[in-house]
TrEMBL record:
<keyword id="KW-0028">Amino-acid biosynthesis</keyword>
<dbReference type="InterPro" id="IPR001874">
    <property type="entry name" value="DHquinase_II"/>
</dbReference>
<feature type="active site" description="Proton donor">
    <location>
        <position position="97"/>
    </location>
</feature>
<comment type="similarity">
    <text>Belongs to the type-II 3-dehydroquinase family.</text>
</comment>
<comment type="function">
    <text>Catalyzes a trans-dehydration via an enolate intermediate.</text>
</comment>
<protein>
    <recommendedName>
        <fullName>3-dehydroquinate dehydratase</fullName>
        <ecNumber>4.2.1.10</ecNumber>
    </recommendedName>
</protein>
<feature type="binding site">
    <location>
        <position position="84"/>
    </location>
    <ligand>
        <name>substrate</name>
    </ligand>
</feature>
<keyword id="KW-0456">Lyase</keyword>
<dbReference type="GO" id="GO:0009073">
    <property type="term" value="P:aromatic amino acid family biosynthetic process"/>
</dbReference>
<comment type="pathway">
    <text>Metabolic intermediate biosynthesis; chorismate biosynthesis; chorismate from D-erythrose 4-phosphate and phosphoenolpyruvate: step 3/7.</text>
</comment>
<feature type="binding site">
    <location>
        <position position="77"/>
    </location>
    <ligand>
        <name>substrate</name>
    </ligand>
</feature>
<feature type="binding site">
    <location>
        <position position="108"/>
    </location>
    <ligand>
        <name>substrate</name>
    </ligand>
</feature>
<dbReference type="Pfam" id="PF01220">
    <property type="entry name" value="DHquinase_II"/>
</dbReference>
<dbReference type="GO" id="GO:0019631">
    <property type="term" value="P:quinate catabolic process"/>
</dbReference>
<feature type="active site" description="Proton acceptor">
    <location>
        <position position="22"/>
    </location>
</feature>
<feature type="site" description="Transition state stabilizer">
    <location>
        <position position="17"/>
    </location>
</feature>
<dbReference type="GO" id="GO:0008652">
    <property type="term" value="P:amino acid biosynthetic process"/>
</dbReference>
Length: 137
């Protein structure tokens, strides 16, 4: 099984950015834990702060991978292009958020990804990625 985790803007700052919301662990450290926990899964990780690069990665992996786990960060609430990219590919996508977006600012309640995603996991911290990964097993 081949899965990719794609993270959007500012998620490269996990461990430093607003630890009261996002925790103190870097994503790179957490990714190593996931790789060790699921050794039989070919697991890749990609992060970009640039919307077009995220779309390109979805298109690149979206026809031959078994799943995409996507945390598009703030682009979740603004990017019709990312939503359209998910709709265009055949690989199922699970939308993930570390925080409970519905307990935050009202603009975070809208997602352009959810209507095209296989499922949505919100608010379980970094464990949201683990839950998304398990949903593909």
């Amino acid at each position: 099984m081949r899965l990719i985790i794609i993270n959007g803007p500012n998620l490269n700052l996990l461990g430093k950015r607003e630890p009261e919301i996002y925790g103190s662990q870097t994503f790179e450290d957490y990714f190593k834990i996931l790789q060790n926990r699921f050794p039989d899964i070919h697991l890749e990780y990609y992060q970009s702060n640039i919307e077009g690069e995220l779309i390109s990665k979805i298109q690149e992996k979206g026809f031959d991978f078994d799943g995409i786990i996507l945390n598009a960060g703030a682009y979740t609430h603004t990017s019709i292009g990312i939503g359209d990219a998910i709709k265009a590919v055949t690989t199922p996508v699970i939308e993930v958020h570390i925080s409970n977006t519905f307990s935050r600012e009202s603009f975070r309640h809208q997602s352009y990804i959810s209507p095209n995603a296989k499922g949505v996991i919100i608010g379980f911290g970094l464990q949201s990625y683990d839950l998304a990964l398990q949903s593909f097993l």
